[in-house]
């Protein structure tokens, strides 16, 4: 598996395989996101204990990943997060402005959302 796999066409994140000497901070810096973004997206209990070869989920910009629940719409998620639905659709690389249960969305932080408008 490549060290830094390119994002899938419909994925708001990349898979990163930990290399010797990597830290969450160094990976975050190289991808332009906060360490907490990677920690949360990857579900790391202890970000100081990375294993060489471990695969981390790295969002493509600051924010957090959200898995759509059954019955939710993009407009409902937008209203709850305070981020415009078209912004979520763009940064999440949605092909259409609708979502299905199980889709993974990138909810950008407020500063990133403001820049994308």
Task: Write out key terms for the chains shown.
117 residues; alpha+beta; Membrane-bound Lytic Murein Transglycosylase D, Chain A; 2 domains; 5 helices; disordered N terminus
Structure characterization notes:
The protein has 117 residues and is of the alpha+beta class. It has two domains: 13-59, Membrane-bound Lytic Murein Transglycosylase D, Chain A (Roll); 63-115, Roll (Membrane-bound Lytic Murein Transglycosylase D, Chain A). Helix content is 32%, strand content 17%. The chain has five helices and four strands; from the N terminus they run βααββααβα. Helix 1 (24-31) packs across helix 2 (35-42). The model is unreliable at 1-9 (pLDDT under 50).
Order of helices and strands: EHHEEHHEH
Shape-level CATH architecture of the largest domain = Roll
Strand order of the largest sheet: 1-2
Give the % helix.
Answer: 25-40%
Gist?
This protein has five helices and four strands; from the N terminus they run βααββααβα.
Give the SSE map.
Elements: E1 13-17, H1 24-31, H2 35-42, E2 55-59, E3 63-67, H3 74-81, H4 85-91, E4 104-108, H5 110-115
Antiparallel strand pairs: 1-2, 3-4
Helix pairs in contact: 1-2
